[in-house]
Amino acid sequence: MESTKRKRVLTGIQPSGKLHIGNYFGTIKRMIEYQECSDLFLFVANLHCLTSLSDPKAIRELTLNAAMDMLSLGIDPERTYFWAQSDVPEVTELMWILSTLTPFGLMERAHSYKDKTAKGIQASLGLFSYPVLMAADILIYQADVVPVGKDQKQHLEITRDIALKFNHQYGDVLTIPEPDISEGVAVIPGTDGQKMSKSYNNTIPIFADEKGWKKTVMSIVTDSKSVEDAKDPDACNVCQLYKLFATPEEQKALAKRYRQGGLGYGDAKKMLLEKVIATFEPYAKKRAHYQAHPEEVKTILKKGAEKVRPIAQKTLEKVRKLVGIEY
Ligand code: ADP
Ligand code: TRP
After folding, report:
1. Ligand 1 atom 12 nearest Cα
2. Pocket flag, ligand 1, residue 131 (CB < 6 Å)
3. Ligand 2 mean position to 11 CA, how many Å?
4. Number of structural domains the chain divides into
5. Is 88 part of any domain?
6. Catalytic-residue membership of 29
7. Is 225 a catalytic residue?
């Protein structure tokens, strides 16, 4: 008989600044949906954050901001495990144990260390062993599935390697996690037509007011066809972005109007703007509430840590016995 046990889905989010609609349709929406059909474990990776930031005030603020963002977008702390990484110190002990069986060469092959140091981030030991902390994050909660972006694929492979090695050496106690990588998710274009990314200054923010959204939507680059000209919906950024919000019927209707001519880009942008506002305004309102009540957010995170910590303690207890430090 097939097991009906709900899958444990776990992911960490690096608190790294303003979210945009590329993040939303690329990953966040999917993560929120996981709440419905699985046990979702979601944490703010503030220990990882220490590898690239050293301003304590910024780290505190970014941690709370990331939590506010996720809560506003629909993470329900009652139905999920939602906490800050640093509130479960067991994870760093497991990291140490795992690091003693992680081959140095495996770490040397990791792209992210090379990429980050090339970008000027200090080459610390913490940055080098970043993937081992990530492995500990995943393995301590016995996660079945880990949804991440393509850039994290190698980290998941490292996690699996470490877990297999541990299980082989000491006995089968760690769940081998499956990556869930959104290869199929289309790259969402930014206002200039390149991939929407905070590094390119071409984003439409999730959290803004009407003025903020209007400014970015109206700045989307189009070609110079006049109102009367027939237009190609597939070649237009406005239309590509509209599709993300629209029903299939609405998409067809807009594509038809593009091909017929008579619809100006200005009007198409207004249609998109309406969708953006209708979709994200409720989230922005919730976000403003949390911004004004940071204590509420801290309490949610602390309670989340209390709820999830026994799971970490249980795994660590087994591991401590197996490796021989429980004497
Ligand atoms: P950015 O490029 O703005 O720095 P991140 O690298 O922090 O974004 O991405 C966070 C998550 O959002 C990743 O999992 C990534 O797959 C997704 N994402 C980011 N930009 C896009 C985009 N333009 N289209 C689709 N998904 C995206
Ligand atoms: N490294 C991930 C990122 O940069 C964040 C992260 C930390 C993570 N620990 C994790 C993701 C565990 C998934 C599972 O996006």
Report:
1. 23
2. no
3. 6
4. 2
5. yes
6. no
7. no
CA distance 101 to 324: 14
Centroid of chain to Cα 218: 27
- Per residue in 254-267, pLDDT (tens digit) is 999 999 999 999 99
Residue pLDDT, tens place only, 41-76: 999 999 999 999 999 999 999 999 999 999 999 999
Q: Ligand 2 centre and the CA of 13: distance in Å?
A: 6
132, 102 in Cβ contact below 8 A? yes
CA distance linking residue 27 with residue 24, whole number of Å? 6
Pull the structure tokens for residue 217: 């939507």
Closest Cα to atom 4 of ligand 2: 14
Examine the residue annotation and report whether 321 is marked as an active-site residue of this protein.
Answer: no
Domain housing 132: 8-186+293-323
- Please count the other Cβ atoms lying within 10 Å of the Cβ belonging to residue 27: 17
**Ligand 2 atom with the shortest distance to the CA of 147:** 13
pTM of the model: 0.91
Structure tokens at 58: 């910024």
Domain co-membership, 182 together with 203 = no
Note whether residue 2 is domain-resident: no
Query: Could you tell me if 248 and 283 lie in one domain?
Result: yes
Output DSSP code: residue 142: T
Asked whether 10 and 141 are in contact (CB, 8 A), the reply is yes
Give the three-class secondary structure for 130.
Answer: helix
